[in-house]
Amino acid sequence: MEKAIEVKNVVKTFTLSKKQQKINQTNEKLKVAVNGLSFDAYKGEIYGLLGSNGAGKTTTLRMLSTLIKPDEGTLYVDGINVVEDPILVRSKIGFLTSELKLEDFFTTNYLYDFYSDLHNIDPEVREARKSELFKRFEITDFAEVKIGDLSTGMRQKASLAISLAQDPKIIIFDEPTNGLDVLTAKIVTDFLLELKQKGYTIILSTHIFSLVEKVCDRVGIMVDGKVLLEGTLDELTKEKSIEDVFFNLYSSIYGGNV
């Protein structure tokens, strides 16, 4: 199988402010968010990074998306080193994360056109794809409504449509269904499965066990900045649920009942 994403021995450390130290209840000035992380995702599959808050999932996806650089190790997207050629990597991926906010003042229609222009998409192609995505995510009637006036679910769907403007074949989603109502979450989940059937590669982070079980071909369970357990769902679960596998692993590390 051909690799779409390669992560090799990656380390990322952040300096904590006084406020962050207080929030994290620590006197340590440095936080190791990703600690020797390695995994591969293959073309045409959905690979899930499963972990609790603070496991390093978002930091990993931000590095893959060229938003931040690793301190050590290497990351490749479609064979391209993300540090050496970030512009080429950006042309090949779509990235959706709740940390990247759309400007409240602009409409979905305006922002879709703006990001399409950044990717030099032909206007005819742009309009055809916009029509398809807006219809698919049921946002056509809200295209001229400002982002700040949309519901949480509608903003998420607008963000999803905009992140796919250039029709990327490698898509990186950070908690794609987090905070969504059940109807919107189903629309997003069904769309992920449709993309997989069309041969797209998707890597997503999540803490939602049911999402992993429904869409992922393979999963890496991430604890303290490392993937400690990896495989297909059948390989990992056998007679158990992925939830049981996760908590058994967590308990073996930290002891006690979780």
Task: Characterize the structure shown.
This protein is α/β, with parallel strands linked by helices and 258 residues long. It has a domain at 3-95 and 170-254: Rossmann fold, CATH 3.40.50.300. 38% of the residues lie in helices and 26% in strands. The protein is built from ten helices and ten strands. The protein has helices at residues 18-23, 57-64, 86-92, 108-118, 123-136, 152-163, 182-197, 209-215, 233-237, 242-254, and strands spanning 3-15, 30-42, 46-50, 72-77, 80-81, 93-97, 170-174, 201-206, 218-223, 226-232. Strands 6-7-8-3-9-10 form a six-stranded mixed sheet, with helices on both faces. A four-stranded antiparallel sheet has the order 2-1-4-5, with helices on one face. Strand 7 (170-174), helix 7 (182-197) and strand 8 (201-206) form a beta-alpha-beta unit. Helix 4 (108-118) runs parallel beside helix 6 (152-163). The two termini are 37 Å apart.
Query: How would you sum up the major sheet?
Result: 6 strands, mixed
Q: In CATH, what is the class of the domain at 3-95 and 170-254?
A: Alpha Beta
Please tell me how large the radius of gyration is: 19 Å
Portion in helices = 25-40%
In whole angstroms, the N-to-C terminal distance is 37 Å
SS-based class: alpha/beta
Secondary-structure element pattern, one letter each: EHEEHEEHEHHHEHEHEEHH
Arithmetic mean of pLDDT = 90
The number of strands is 10
Summed up, the helix count is: 10
Strand content: 25-35%
Question: What is the CATH fold-level name of the domain at 3-95 and 170-254?
Answer: Rossmann fold
